[in-house]
Amino acid sequence: MNSDSSTDRRYGEERDPRAYVAPAVATVLGVMLAPLALLFGALSVMATDSCGPDDCSAALTTALDVMYGTLFLGGLLGVAACVAAWLLPRTRRWAVPRVWLAGLSLLPWLAVIALVFNLPQG
């Protein structure tokens, strides 16, 4: 019986030298996109200036509600996904979930920015 630990390892258990790349890119992009999404989300309430908060279309108020919900709940989930991407074990076995979590952490910020630029008429 061989006691060498390198031969006893299963496939995917070796260290991934690029394990930090996806979480680092997601963190840098998130640091740039999150304030932009928060700023645009805060300014989007001005879309109701022409119609007043009580006379706006249902489509506009629904879009604003979805956007604010995405900022709050999606922001929390996005930060949690980014933290989870950093905390996954740095082995090749976890490379794909790490990349998915890093990518999903950016989704709420991108969704808010897309919603701001596609608000319906008031």
How would you sum up this structure, described in words?
It is a single chain. It is built from 6 helices and no strands. With 122 residues, it is mainly alpha-helical. Helix 2 runs antiparallel to helix 4, helix 2 runs parallel beside helix 6 (107-117) and helix 4 packs antiparallel against helix 5. The model has no long low-confidence stretch (mean pLDDT 89). The protein is 67% helix and 0% strand. The termini are far apart. The relative contact order is 0.21.
Summarize this entry quickly.
With 122 residues, the chain is an all-alpha fold. It is 67% helix and 0% strand.
Indicate the low-confidence ranges by residue numbers. Answer: none
Number of helices: 6
Class derived from helix and strand content: mainly alpha
Q: What best-fitting shape do the alpha-carbon axes yield?
A: elongated
What share of residues is helical?
Answer: 55-70%
Would you tell me the overall average pLDDT?
Answer: 89
Radius of gyration: 21 Å
- The SSE string, one letter per element, is HHHHHH
As a percent range, the share of strand residues is: under 5%
Largest sheet: none
Total number of strands? 0
Q: Report the end-to-end length measured between terminal Cα atoms.
A: 75 Å
